[in-house]
Amino acid sequence: MNKLLAFYKKDVVEAGCDEAGRGCLAGPVVAAAVVLPTDFEHPLLNDSKQLDEDTRYLLREFIIKHATAWAVGFADHEEIDEINILNASFLAMHRAVEQLSCQVQHLIIDGNRFRKYREIPHACIVKGDSLYYSIASASVLAKTYRDDHMRALHAEFPHYEWDRNKGYPTPAHRRAIREFGLSTYHRRSFRQLPEQLELDFSSLFLPLLTK
User: Which end of the chain has fewer CB atoms surrounding its CB within 10 Å, N or C?
Assistant: First the structure.
């Protein structure tokens, strides 16, 4: 595994940001912002999607213990439906950054888009969670805190198996939607079932078929 980089911009207080849950059918999108000391490193730390669950939780404890500052922000399912998932992801990141206990001078964001937070300069980095320790740390925190949240929601709606799928569109999750309908935590603006896509697609040709 290649060693990650400590920072993108030298000699500034820099926070890495990432989110989890954009592709889910239910629950919030969760983001984290992390400021690390310049000598921070860990041989296992990487993009959270490349790690197993046990490793992610072990790394979370290490990150929390050694980070200069860290915070987690949520945008819930209703906000996602109201402003769309991309804007909700930005909102969750902004909420994480504003909770940091230190004054941040620069942000590095996983991905290729971001809405500027106040007057703090930023850089968007594609696959940044596999390049920079701070973004990888944010990835781990966002993923694990969101997983904890979905396990808590599972107790309220166990038939969707959110303790296992965390709200992602697995076959079991979609079978439960067909059987029980949508819960109060499902995102109404998302296509919950494949047949919705078929209906939406066929409707494009309806005017032609009726002529």
Answer: C
